[in-house]
């Protein structure tokens, strides 16, 4: 009776027509809704009312689907082109109080568990089960339901043959099946159900990061032991490898999934002796518990036993000072003797990784070397730590990874903090080793590190007992650095970086230890660069964004009087203009600094005067063969009327 009263109120209320229909659909008043739609069938409001999206962004069909009104769904589908209604998308709370954008009526019905309505939408309304939801653009309903662990939806779609357990895949580049999605999330019961319904346990997705991303690899990588057991018992292939040739055992070890490692060992799931040894290396951590260390030793023991059984000798790497000239253990007795010595075990792990990873160009060894070097630095064994860094440098080169020169900078700063003497010949060796001055392109980080090395060089020059020969070595390296006119992608030279306070922000590796010794703007570095490389350094070079010279930058940002004076005394042009048409002194408001510009005679005044006349008169210099590119550039620097231009 209340519904009748309500419906009459709605029908005869002076309300916006779509709102009337919305209320009828929301309250399940099928006959009244049908009658009202018939009344509107010949009106201009008909289509708009039928597919109306109100404040909640819901069409009438979505409202009916959300509430499970199958009779209203059928009425709506008969009143208008069903395709138009079916494809409408809105925003609705479907699960876990999450607002989902782009949900169709089919999604509304399924996620509310109204499967009778869902069946009507698919069979009568021809709803597209493969259509993506906008909130997850690569997932059709079957895959999306799997990811959300909605087994009721998965069951509904499979049992009614609306989805195929193997053919329905994510629409992204991976093309993952439901089994892969369930295995990677550890949905054990769903994995079991999918396998029972014919899911291909050996299907490999097209993941760009993995050579063969099957369900069992996903379960292994994510540590889902129960899902792994189900897949193994279902006959999943265990001889698959990662793009770096890692097997299931190594993947489990790298991710510290001890239960999976034990399961794989129990089932003898490993390909080679190398797998066992690499797995042990991946599991090792200097802070590992006794239980974890036992797993590491079990793996190493099994590996040695297999070697003896199969008569596979170790081809050990050449002994090195960074490993205390140790060699790998050849027998179980040798292994047992080092069990209580964590430092020696660490070296054993490194020796194994060096032997296996070097031939594969595997970057795993680099991470281990980083941990080893950090431990040496903590123990203040700086010389050995430096040797490890140099060794790491060669490893970086072999694996085609950008060299992490920031570690060298950090180590030298640590040595300075500890008042340790930095051996000059070793320092120069590192300088030439890490900066290949034959390269024509440099990333900004590399050039900044070169500048940081110059600061460290200044600190070394202050050490007691330095000889003339050693001083000459340092000056010679700095001259070579200047001679190659290093420039960042943004057009900044060593001089720009030297006077720019923003260079401090490139100290992004253990900044707390390095900022004590390395700060910008830096007068000492500027003075040394000018003394060693003035003939190669262009004082008036401009960077790309604002056409600022080094003098512009120091005047705009820091206004360091000593640096400004040094640049002026070195011959930089105080009347060069940037893209804003301003000269450096335009940014100075301090009277004392301003006086430097008024009292200092402009170098090459006649040349500057002529350049300004040529620029301001807009004389055509392009056709004159007498003007070199350097002269054209000089004119450009004195053009106060320009907005943008190009030197090339």
From TrEMBL:
The keyword Transit peptide does not apply. SMART domains: ANK. Gene3D superfamilies: Ankyrin repeat-containing domain (1.25.40.20). It comes from the Eukaryota. ANK repeats lie at residues 174-206, 211-243, 546-579. Keywords: ANK repeat, Repeat. The keyword Plastid does not apply. Pfam families: Ank, Ank_2, Ank_4. This is Ankyrin repeat protein.
């Amino acid at each position: 009776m209340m519904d009748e009263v309500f419906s009459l109120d709605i029908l005869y209320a002076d309300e916006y027509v779509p709102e009337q229909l919305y209320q009828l659909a929301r309250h399940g008043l099928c006959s009244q809704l049908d009658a009202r739609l018939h009344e509107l069938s010949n009106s201009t409001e008909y289509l708009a009312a039928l597919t109306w999206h109100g404040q909640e962004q819901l069409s009438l069909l979505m409202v009916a689907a959300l509430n499970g009104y199958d009779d209203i769904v059928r009425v709506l589908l008969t009143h208008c082109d069903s395709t138009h209604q079916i494809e409408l998308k809105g925003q609705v709370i479907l699960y876990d109080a999450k607002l989902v954008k782009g949900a169709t009526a089919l999604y509304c019905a399924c996620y509310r568990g109204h499967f009778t309505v869902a069946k009507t939408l698919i069979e009568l309304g021809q709803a597209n089960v493969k259509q993506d939801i906008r909130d997850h653009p690569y997932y059709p309903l079957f895959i999306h339901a799997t990811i959300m662990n909605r087994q009721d939806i998965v069951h509904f779609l499979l049992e009614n043959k609306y989805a195929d357990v193997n053919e329905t895949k994510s629409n992204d580049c991976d093309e993952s099946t439901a089994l892969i999605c369930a295995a990677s999330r550890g949905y054990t019961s769903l994995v079991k159900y999918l396998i029972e319904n014919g899911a291909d346990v050996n299907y490999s997705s097209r993941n760009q990061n993995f050579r063969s991303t099957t369900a069992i690899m996903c379960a292994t990588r994510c540590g889902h032991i129960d899902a792994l057991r189900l897949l193994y018992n279902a006959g999943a292939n265990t001889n698959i490898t990662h793009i770096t040739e890692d097997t299931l055992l190594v993947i489990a070890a790298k991710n510290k999934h001890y239960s999976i490692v034990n399961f794989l060992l129990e089932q003898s799931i490993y390909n080679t002796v190398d797998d066992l040894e690499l797995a042990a290396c991946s599991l090792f951590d200097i802070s590992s518990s006794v239980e974890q260390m036992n797993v590491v030793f079990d793996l190493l023991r099994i590996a040695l036993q297999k070697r003896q059984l199969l008569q596979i000798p170790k081809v050990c790497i050449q002994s090195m000072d960074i490993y205390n000239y140790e060699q790998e253990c050849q027998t179980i007795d040798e292994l047992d003797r080092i069990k209580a010595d964590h430092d020696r075990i660490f070296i054993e792990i490194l020796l194994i990784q060096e032997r296996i990873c070097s031939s594969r160009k595997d970057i795993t060894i680099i991470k281990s070397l980083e941990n080893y070097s950090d431990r040496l630095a903590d123990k203040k064994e700086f010389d050995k730590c430096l040797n490890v860094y140099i060794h790491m440098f060669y490893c970086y080169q072999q694996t085609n990874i950008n060299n992490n020169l920031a570690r060298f900078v950090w180590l030298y700063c640590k040595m300075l903090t500890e008042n340790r003497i930095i051996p000059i010949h070793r320092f120069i060796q590192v300088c030439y080793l890490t900066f290949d001055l034959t390269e024509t392109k440099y990333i900004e980080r590399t050039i900044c590190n070169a500048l940081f090395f110059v600061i460290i060089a200044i600190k070394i020059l202050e050490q007691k007992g330095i000889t003339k020969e050693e001083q000459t070595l340092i000056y010679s390296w700095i001259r070579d650095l200047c001679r190659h006119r290093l420039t960042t992608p943004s057009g900044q030279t060593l001089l720009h970086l030297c006077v720019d306070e923003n260079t401090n922000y490139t100290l992004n590796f253990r900044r707390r230890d390095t900022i004590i010794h390395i700060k910008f703007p830096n007068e000492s570095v500027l003075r040394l660069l000018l003394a060693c490389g003035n003939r190669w350094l262009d004082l008036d070079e401009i960077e790309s964004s604002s056409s600022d010279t080094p003098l512009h930058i120091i005047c705009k940002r820091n206004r360091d009087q000593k640096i400004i004076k040094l640049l002026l005394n070195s011959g930089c042009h105080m009347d060069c203009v940037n893209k804003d048409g301003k000269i450096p002194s335009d940014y100075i408001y301090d009277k004392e600094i301003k006086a430097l510009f008024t009292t200092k005679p402009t170098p090459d005044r006649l040349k500057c005067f002529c350049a300004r006349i040529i620029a301001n008169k807009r004389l055509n210099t392009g056709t004159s063969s007498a003007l070199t590119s350097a002269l054209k550039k000089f004119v450009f620097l004195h053009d106060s009327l320009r907005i943008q231009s190009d030197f090339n």
